[in-house]
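Name: TLC domain containing 3A
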Amino acid sequence: MLLTLAGGALFFPGLFALCTWALRRSRPAWTDSDCLMISTRLVSSVQAVLATGSGIVVVLSSCSDVVNGS
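Structure predicted for TLC domain containing 3A:
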């Protein structure tokens, strides 16, 4: 569990830093706030997709009746 937490604590800030750096290099006309806003939204989208995917895996693999929780 701690390994997963440590991985997420490194992955998401790293993704944010990488996106911000790439946007600043590829779009020099954009302001810093534009680059930060796009990077934040991209990281949030990735996190949402991963959370949805893990939820689907949990429901499909461990729940036979989602409504009653059994």
